[in-house]
Structure formats: structure tokens, C-alpha cells
Design goal:
Largest sheet: 7 strands, mixed
Strand order of the largest sheet: 2-1-6-7-4-9-3
Shape: elongated
Radius of gyration: 29 Å
Distance between the termini: 57 Å
């Protein structure tokens, strides 16, 4: 086959390409591989000379479980979902105010909380200011997510940009062969094959929701609180609606378990790519090395683009898509006492609370403010008394004769201040009660990107 001569090959200039083989771009390559289950068609579009093969092999080779694979790829034996970053983040504490359920949540609740941080406050309740706080109401309904439901995938349009590094990788391999440098051509083709096969095999897993198979019949509504340091999320809905968030997780159904030999073989192929390219690419011509670096650079740019999409936000979008974009409403408050009263008012609303429900407002207030001083105890008793007046106008004033004996002046002043906070929360609730009872669409409340 005739070849063409490249002038740069006659010079003494030499590229030390072994420094970038295998190690360069490892983090970006891992981030790109973790999107393989999130975008439709992504598993078929890995045919390019991706850098970072050593880092990718060490990361995903830990999935393979046997004495041989554990020796070759040491590390913790994680689940496929954890290795691909689809599980493992701890969520906030959840408390079901009607059911009494109290538990630590997992990855999906964490994603829901992260989403509520992006929601813009619809209104702010006036009052004494100490620390900026908020209450976000999320209405989950229709029981749309069930156990083992397939998770929806994102559009293919981002993944289609892989056509650029794929074209460049095949073109540089062909040009290297045409110039007579079959070694560089073969090494580029090795990178294409190892990356493509690995993407195809690892992407064959199905992303599903794992949750409670079936909620117990006749259980009370699962309205409850996701409690964080400053912010609180109120989930409203039936048990079957809220279980996927509080008890569910992403599950990656990957064939070949529990040993996952195919993943081990793919990691071994990536490791072989690293060693062969490391040892042999310096033996290629200068032009062949330039072609090799060009394919690596194009592949690294595409991996960096996929890494910039932020996998966590992609997962949030998948969760919301599965839940049919539950409406959210955020109200900003200025102190903890007002936040506690406001949340209690939302949960005790007669329009939504089931009849004869076992709702204990004092426990809700104690959940927010567990202090057991007589000022706080008196404050809680007064607030609970006023909340019991369902249709009557509420008054948060208290006379000195109603106070326990021995109240000092500074305690009276503190109690008066806390009761004013309760009144501010009540007035804010009354001003926005129609929005609270029928939470508007989320899309209207999201923060606009700056």
C-alpha cells in the first residue's frame, strides 16, 4: 500500500507521549463512564481513544468479585449502583407525623432535598430575624413510582456529541496507517476497541427503582418532615407515593452477578491498553505520536463535557421525571420558632388532614425545638392551645396570671418575643393559605440560572 512521507518524521524532535498515556484525563473518563446508564443510547457511543484507561480500570474493576479480581483490583466490594455514583449519599432524617415513622433516608431523599435548595422562595414571613430558614412543601401523588420500575433516561442529544471524538479517533488511526506508521494506528485502534467494548458491557445494566413492594393497606397518610440543619421539607402524599423517596433507591441490574466477570475482563482490557500504549507509543514516529495525541485530546474534551453536566443534577432530573415533576412551594422564615409553628400549621390543616388522625402538634414543635426550659414548655403549651382552635381567630397573647409561678422578667420578655414569632408565622400562613393548599407548579418557582 503506498504511503506518504511526513517532513516532521525526519527531524530530531520527539514527543514524550508516555507521560500522558493512562493517567491523563482519568477523573474525566470516570465521570463520563458514570453517565452510561443515564443517557439513552450512550452505551453504543464509546468508540473513541479515551484517555485515563488505568484509572477507569482500577475504579470499575473493583466490581468484579473473586480472589483473582480482588488481587488485581483491590478495594471495597461496592454494589454496581454505588460504584457508578447512583447510591451511597445519606439523606436527612424523616418523620411521618401521622404514621409515627421515624427513619434515616437514603440517596433519593438526598436528591429531593438538593432539588428543593434550587427552588426560589415564593414569599418571606416577616418577623424577628436570627437565621435564614425555610419550609418547602412538596406534593407527591398518584403512586407513579413502583418497585422495580425502570428509571427514565435522559435525551440522547448530549451523547450524540460523541460523534466528534469517534470520527477523530478513526480518522487519526487511518491517517497514521496511510503515513506508514502502523504502530500508532494500531495503538489508537486499541484504545477505540477497549473503550467501546467497556462502554457497551458496562452500559448493558438497567437502572431501576428499588422501593417497598406494596404499602400496607389502610395506613394513614405519609405526610412528614425531612429535617435538615436550617431547612425543612414537608412531603405530602399517601404512603405509596412517599415510600420511593424515603425508602427507595436506584438499583443497577447488571448481568453476571455477583462475580461480574465481564466487568473484570473489560477492566483487564483497559489495563492492557494502558500498558501497551505506555510502552509502545514512544516507538511510533513523531507524526504518529501527534495523531495519537490528537485522538486523546478530542476524547478528553468530550469526557470533560460529560463530566461538566454534573451527574447529581442528571439523577435529580431522572427522579423528578419519574415522579412527574411534583409541585413545590418554598416559604422563607427568619427564626426557628416561626419555622416550627409554620410547619405545624401546614401539617395540621383541616382541609388535608384525615379525620380522627393521630396528629400531635406538640411533638412537631418539640422536634424543631427540643429545649425543656419552662419558657419553651410554656410557649409550646400556648401554641398547641391556639392551634386547637380550628376555625376561631388565634391569639398568641398570654397574661401574667396564666404564667407558672416564679417567672422572672427576662423570661417573660423572652416568652413574649417567642409568641410574637408564632403570631408572625400564623399570619404568614393565613396570607398564603391558598398557595399552600394547592401548591403551584415547580417550574414557576425554580431559581433562574445566573
Amino acid at each position: 500500500m503506498p504511503t506518504f512521507t511526513v517532513p516532521v518524521d525526519r527531524s530530531d524532535f520527539n514527543l514524550n507521549t508516555s507521560n500522558v498515556v493512562g493517567f491523563f484525563g482519568g477523573d474525566e473518563a470516570i465521570a463520563a463512564m458514570t453517565t452510561v446508564h443515564l443517557y439513552r443510547g450512550r452505551r453504543w457511543l464509546g468508540w473513541y481513544n479515551s484517555p485515563g484507561s488505568y484509572t477507569v480500570a482500577k475504579k470499575f474493576g473493583q466490581l468484579a468479585k473473586s480472589r483473582f479480581w480482588d488481587g488485581l483490583f483491590p478495594g471495597p466490594n461496592l454494589t454496581p449502583a454505588e460504584v457508578f455514583g447512583l447510591d451511597g449519599k445519606p439523606g436527612p432524617r424523616y418523620w411521618g407525623v401521622f404514621s409515627g415513622t421515624e427513619m434515616t433516608t437514603g440517596h433519593l431523599a438526598y436528591l429531593m432535598v438538593e432539588k428543593t435548595k434550587e427552588v426560589h422562595a415564593e414569599a418571606e414571613v416577616e418577623g424577628r430575624e436570627t437565621t435564614p430558614l425555610s419550609v418547602t412543601i412538596v406534593d407527591v401523588g398518584n403512586g407513579v413510582v413502583k418497585h422495580l420500575d425502570r428509571a427514565p433516561m435522559m435525551s440522547i442529544h448530549h451523547a450524540l456529541l460523541a460523534a466528534i471524538p469517534i470520527t477523530i479517533s478513526f480518522a487519526t488511526s487511518a491517517v497514521s496507517a496511510a503515513s506508514g506508521d502502523w504502530l500508532a494506528s494500531a495503538l489508537i485502534m486499541l484504545g477505540i476497541i477497549s473503550s467501546g467494548v467497556s462502554c457497551l458491557v458496562m452500559g448493558s445494566a438497567q437502572l431501576e427503582f428499588a422501593s417497598v413492594k406494596e404499602a400496607a393497606p389502610h395506613v394513614p397518610p405519609a405526610d412528614g418532615l425531612l429535617l435538615m440543619r436550617n431547612d425543612v421539607v414537608i412531603l405530602r402524599g399517601e404512603e405509596r407515593d412517599i415510600d420511593p423517596i424515603t425508602k427507595g433507591k436506584f438499583d443497577l441490574k447488571m448481568g453476571g452477578g455477583p462475580e461480574f466477570k465481564r466487568i473484570g475482563l473489560c477492566s483487564l482490557l483497559l489495563l492492557a491498553q494502558f500498558l501497551l500504549q505506555l510502552l509502545l507509543i514512544p516507538q511510533a514516529t513523531t507524526f504518529g505520536q501527534i495523531m495519537f495525541l490528537s485522538s486523546v485530546a478530542a476524547s478528553w474534551a468530550y469526557n470533560s463535557f460529560l463530566a461538566s453536566l454534573e451527574q447529581e443534577k442528571i439523577q435529580i432530573n431522572i427522579l423528578l421525571k419519574a415522579l412527574r415533576n411534583p409541585p413545590m412551594l418554598k416559604i422563607a422564615l427568619k427564626n426557628r420558632a416561626a419555622q416550627a409553628v409554620f410547619a405545624c400549621l401546614v401539617l395540621s390543616d383541616d382541609a388535608r388532614r384525615p379525620p380522627n388522625s393521630d396528629f400531635k402538634p406538640k411533638e412537631v414543635l418539640q422536634c424543631f425545638i427540643p429545649n425543656e426550659t419552662r419558657v419553651w414548655n410554656t410557649w409550646r403549651d400556648k401554641v398547641v392551645e391556639e392551634l386547637g382552635k380550628h376555625e376561631e381567630e388565634k391569639s398568641f397573647d398570654i397574661s401574667s396570671s396564666d404564667l407558672p409561678a416564679g417567672f422572672r422578667d427576662h423570661e417573660k420578655q423572652l416568652l413574649s418575643s417567642l409568641l410574637r414569632d408564632a403570631r408572625s408565622a400564623y399570619e404568614g400562613y393565613r396570607n398564603h393559605i391558598h398557595k399552600i393548599r394547592s401548591v403551584p407548579s415547580t417550574s414557576l418557582n425554580e431559581k433562574k440560572p445566573s
